[in-house]
Structures are given as structure tokens and as C-alpha cells.
Amino acid sequence: MNLRLIAAQIIDEVTNGRSLSDVLPTYFQSIKDPRDRAFVQALCYGVCRYYPRLDVILSYLLQKPMREKDSDVHALLLVGLYQLMEMRVPAHAAVSETVSAVEKFKKPWARGLINAVLREYLRNKDKIDAEMMTDDEAIYAHPSWWIHAIKKAWPDQWEQILSANNAHPPFSLRVNLQRADRDTYLHRIENEAQIIPETKTGILLASPISVDMLPGFADGDISVQDGAAQLAAELLQLEPEQLVLDACAAPGGKLMHMLEIQPQLEVVAIEKDPKRIESIRENLIRLKSQADCICRDANEVESWWDGRLFDRILLDAPCSASGVIRRHPDIKLLRQPTDLKNLAKEQAKLLDSLWPLLTSGGLFVYVTCSIFPEENILQMQHFIDRHPDALEEKIRADWGIACDIGRQILPGMHEMDGFYYACFRKM
């Protein structure tokens, strides 16, 4: 089994539009050794994280662009380059194993090409790196349109944002306060850890570990969730017996947190992806909680709504995920410049569909894991213009950045992912 080959096949699928979270589990079925899985995952995440930089350098090394039908060879070249540039893999092993992997493609010409390109990079690494590091895509390891968009949105913080996007994410946990308090749980884990002060339930570990190694995970004492995502349930101001809607509920972390804060809720969770809603149901079982999980499009209200008005609505809106690139580096490959406009339309449609379902005096919390104004503050300004009965409820907090409407956490702030929150009371 050639692990570089598997990594290249995965990268090839990502460059053709599939996400790492969709592709990796399929390939992992054939990899039994956890160490091999970890190596493949490191290769795939690393290539995606630095794809724009790697591609600039590869274009320089190639005499002419690769043909579209040879995207598999292109992916293998990226895997080879990434090992030489960023991994502690002996250069001879990186080259020889990558060259060997190409045999499975049944393209004899590619063996010599890969060998020549990788050795050329090794011979002239310093010169090539110096020449290529005048290109913004190589310097910041982001597509040029993405760099431009972040510069426009955050002219004073754009470099910090790009740097945070390229960093490895922290490992954050949420303590189930129904079963344990945070200080007590800190004493149960052997790993170096600290509280996340901006949350009531968050713990930050110095290094990631398998969930199987987390004390009480199987019993629902602890869950994996970024600190920024833990703020959603706290902002909802939950009380017993409330009827709550969690729209676009997958992967379910915010739903579970709601039920941990206030077990006596009646929650309706809407998710249109059948696979993802099954994951939500599995987590409900682990946490010994209950919710009415409905596999429908939240926009198609008539297909799932029973006519009762909700006391609380959480809309975790589909978005560019520009705030979580460090966790999902394949976003750099999957997102296109036209996506922002299309996503903004989808968000507006959801807002208009769900707002009428909120009772008078009820609270609506809008959240994205985006940093772009088109999906956040500008979206909220348009929402208020369309709905004069929506009164912003200011978020009284010291986390993130106060915006004209809502608050924005940028990637890396408070060791958190990039999130935006806004709250509205129905008059």
C-alpha cells in the first residue's frame, strides 16, 4: 500500500469538487493502521492548506501546464512537493515513494516527470522559494481572489487572518454542565488544558487527542466543539419548556449544547442532509437527550412546520465557512468568487422563511462561521430593512469585535474560529 498514492487520489477528488470530510472516510476503510491514517491525513490537510503556494511553485517547475486528464499526476506532484517543503520526511524517501506511486496511474511518462520535478526542486530549493515568494498566492497560501476579499473586508487585520487560516487549529472541548463542572473535569484529564474564559463550558487542550481517550466522552460528559460555536446556546437565553427551532442543525453541536444548558426544552432540529441528521441522532443517544429531528429543507416550511410559533430560533446559516479554514483547508480549493453572492441569497431566503415562525417577544439568533460582511453585517442590515418588527438585541460581551449589528470573532481571536453572531427580538 502506497500512502502517497492514496493521498494523491484524495487530493485529486478534492480538486474536482469533493470535500475532504466526504472523501477521507471512504479511503480510510482500506487503511487499518492508525499511524498510516494519520500520515495520509497530514498529507491531505497539508496539501490543501498550502495548495496555492504549492501550485505556484509547481507551475514554475513544469515546462508547460498539466493536461486536465492528468489531474492525478498533478495531485501526486503536489503531494511530493509538500513533503519536501513542510514535512520531516527524508528527502530520498519522499522522492522515491512518490515516484513509485505513479505506477498505479499506468502513465509511464509520468515517472520521469515526477522524478525530475522533485529533484529539480531539491537542487534549487532556496532559489526557487525566494523567487516564488514574490507572488501573493505563494506568500499567503490563499487564492488571489480570497486575499483581495479579506483585504477589502478587514483592511487592518487581513494579514493576521490569513496567517491564522494557515495555522493548525486548537483542540477545544465543551463540558456538559449537567454531568460535571468545568474545574472538576480539568482534573480528570491528564493532558495540559485550560478554560476558555469567553465561554461557560469551554476547555482548550494543548494538543489534540482521540475522543476515545477523553474521560467520559462515551457517557456524554464532554464533547468536541470550538469555543466560538459554544457561544450560540448561551446567547439564546434558554428557559424550561420553551419551544426552540434549530434550523440547519448539522453537525449538531449547538443543539446538544442547548439541551445540556436546559434539558426541559422542546427542540425541533431541521437538517436536509440525511447522513448528517443521522449523525445528530447518534449524538443525541450519546448525550441521552431528545429532539425532534426532521430531514427537510428549512426553507420548505410547509413540509415540516406544525403551526406552533417558536420561542427561540437559531439559524446557523449556510455560509462560505471563511472563518474555519484552519479546520477545513480544502475550502481554499472548493470556494469560488461567485459563491458569496449565491450564499447571501440563500441566507436571506432562510431568514425570510423562518422569521414569521417566531412568537412575539421571541429571540432569533443568527450565526455564521464566516468573516465576510456580505454574509454578516450587510445581511443583517438588509434583514432589518425587510422586517421592521425585528429589533436588534445588543450582545453584551467582551469577545470579538462589536459591529454596527452583532459581533464578529476573527480566526485566532481568543483561540477561536471565526464566527459572527447577531440577535433579534420580535416586537
Q: How would you characterize this protein structure?
A:
The chain folds into 3 domains: 3-138, N-utilizing Substance Protein B Homolog, Chain A; 171-224, Alpha-Beta Plaits, CATH 3.30.70.1170; 231-426, Rossmann fold. Helix content is 44%, strand content 15%. The protein contains 18 helices and 13 strands. The strands form 2 sheets. Strands 5, 6, 7, 8, 9, 10, 11, 12 and 13 form a 9-stranded mixed beta sheet that branches. Strands 2-3-1-4 form a 4-stranded antiparallel beta sheet, with helices on one face. Helix 15 (274-286) links the parallel strand 6 and strand 7. The longest helix has 16 residues, at 34-49.
Topology of this structure?
Layout: H1 3-15, H2 20-28, H3 34-49, H4 51-61, H5 71-86, H6 91-101, H7 108-123, H8 125-132, H9 136-140, H10 144-153, H11 158-165, E1 171-175, H12 182-188, E2 193-195, E3 202-205, E4 222-224, H13 231-235, E5 243-247, H14 253-261, E6 266-270, H15 274-286, E7 292-294, E8 310-316, H16 331-334, H17 339-354, E9 358-368, H18 377-386, E10 390-392, E11 401-402, E12 407-409, E13 419-426
Parallel strand pairs: 5-6, 5-8, 6-7, 8-9
Antiparallel strand pairs: 1-3, 1-4, 2-3, 9-13, 10-13, 11-12, 12-13
Helix pairs in contact: 1-2, 1-3, 1-5, 3-5, 4-5, 5-6, 5-7, 6-7, 10-11, 17-18
